[in-house]
Amino acid sequence: MTMNSLNIEGSRSTPQILCNADTGVISMRGDAYPENSFEFFHGLIDWVAQYLVETTHPLVLELYLIYMNTSSVKAMMDIFDMLEDAHRQGREVAVHWYYDPENERVVELAEEFREDLTFPFTISSVDE
Amino acid sequence: MSNHQPIPEDDAGQDAWLETLIVDPANSNNPLLPALQLLCRRDREHKKRLNRLLRISDGYYALARAETDSLLKHSNQQIRRLEKISRISDRYQQSLLEWNEQLRRAALRDPLTGLANRRMMIERIEEEQERARRRHTDFTLAMLDVDYFKQINDTYGHELGDRVLCSIADAINSNLRNYDLGARWGGEEFMILLPHTGLTEARDICARVQKALAGVKLAQTGQTLNITASIGLTPYRGQEEYTQTIDRADKALLRAKREGRDRIEVA
Hints:
The complex is a heterodimer of chains A (128) and B (267). Chain A is 37% helix and 30% strand. With 128 residues, chain A is of the alpha/beta class. Chain A has a single domain, classed as Transcription Regulator spoIIAA (2-Layer Sandwich), CATH 3.30.750.24. Chain B has 267 residues and is an alpha+beta fold. Chain B has a domain at 118-266: Reverse transcriptase/Diguanylate cyclase domain (Alpha-Beta Plaits, 2-Layer Sandwich), CATH 3.30.70.270.
């Protein structure tokens, strides 16, 4: 079975999500405060789980996230935990978190997310 | 019985003693010998069973302990996770509060001069009106319009005109007391709210502002612009609606303009 790419259109309260099965790159852009975060992140989490099981290629997350509500924070932590497990089993995974230099506070947030994780996790300004 | 030594106290000694009795040739014809042999055999069986039982139940205990440990570990992990989620979430909330505060401030300030805008002035006047009605205090409103400001714009261009407006705003603001409020009402028109202030005192403050305006200079050249302003001054009266007060200040200002500008008219 081959992996399909997954594209979720962004809205005012949900980020745009592009999962590319060929390149192994997931990009997320925008704010995340969906009304039903379980439903919203369900597709993404399934995709990541399937990708990790069915392929052996690297997986890279490129994040351009601004605001997140609590349940979205939890969903992102779930995804990072999946990556951490995969990493401990020798899989190549990485997260690149990009922030707007106008909004430096995002750095502290991303650092908080990164705590306890051992795979490569970079935090950089979109300008760099 | 040929053996009359005392019975040993410890288990191993007793076993050895029993064994000696059983194998002693002197006891070989004792009718109780088969019974003793039977009892010893049963005793060994019982001990073996008891040991097995202990080992098995120890095993279960260890299992239960391991399970508890893993549950404990798991629940500690979950707590750590929850703490992390709350920490991150708190940070987001803090950012939101700050953005909110920035927006609120932006919504109440005139972007050019940084003075209060019309909305903030109305809010403060409403508060003063409430206070005046409850505690019978008084407040005074001054409506100020810069004379011939169009000429400054025409002579120096709008960009410099805007900078002069900022200097005017500063001149007004720095001559007020810290509980007064100066706002940009529109164009080159300003409103000044003077809480707990009667007409005489209000007039002094307005005169001070006029004097400060006369000293406003063109930032580039340092040239004094001889700015004058017409002012309509009026106290809040009794139980009236503040819109009536504003209206009166407006009319007084018009009169000041008609009567030749650079003056204060009281209504």
